[in-house]
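Chain and conformation:
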Amino acid sequence: MFFRDPVSLARAATLIAIFCAVTVHASTIKLRIVLDPCDRAPKDVRVVMNNDENEQPPLDHDQTYRIWTGKWEDKREGGQFPDVRLSASVRLGGARTDCEFAGKPEKDDHGVFIAVFKFACDQNPTSDVTIKSEPFAFRYVRFLKKSGDKTLGCDCTERSPSLNGTQTLLDTRLPMEVLRLGLEYSASDAFWIQLNDLPVIHKPRKGIPVTLDHDGVVDAIVRSTPGEGFGPNAHDIVKVNPQIKPDTRVTLTVN
């Protein structure tokens, strides 16, 4: 395409510059996940990349089920692996790992970077937590502190996208893992509840749903937000908040 008009040429240059400025360059990397020997070899492994619950690429296993491989598209705006460190954690179906950074980067025969993660076997039992929210959309955060003095270990702060209806959080390591639930009243704001403070989470009755009605949700919000501008009348203020409709319900089930 040729431009004889200098003005048209300038406009085209401006559009190209804008396009380049907003384009996020992604790179596809390979993953190699190595699991230390456990009492049992997990048959269904899920990896969570970069603390993003929505980033769970499919994996293939070797004959021993100890080495799992896959690919992941690194779309991070601040840079890609290996220039920027990359973390992951693994759900093992009845157990989960801590979060770890990838080790020294490797390359395959075609020059594609390989992020190698080595996870220790963890025998702490886990539970699946099912959340149902009405009428709010919701999101959640899973916090798990780094354990021990692992060189590549790091804290987990694993976040979900916006969700509707019902969602199951697989392999939660309760009570060490802290769960926070955000009830979204706008695209950017949410009322937050620390689920670990609720009896259904810290003293669960397996498989029995527990529903928080409007008042139960209000109580949970107030208890979860100390020091954030909530005074002695916080309960009454939140209770009459028009965003928290009378039909608000949150149902939690631990399995």
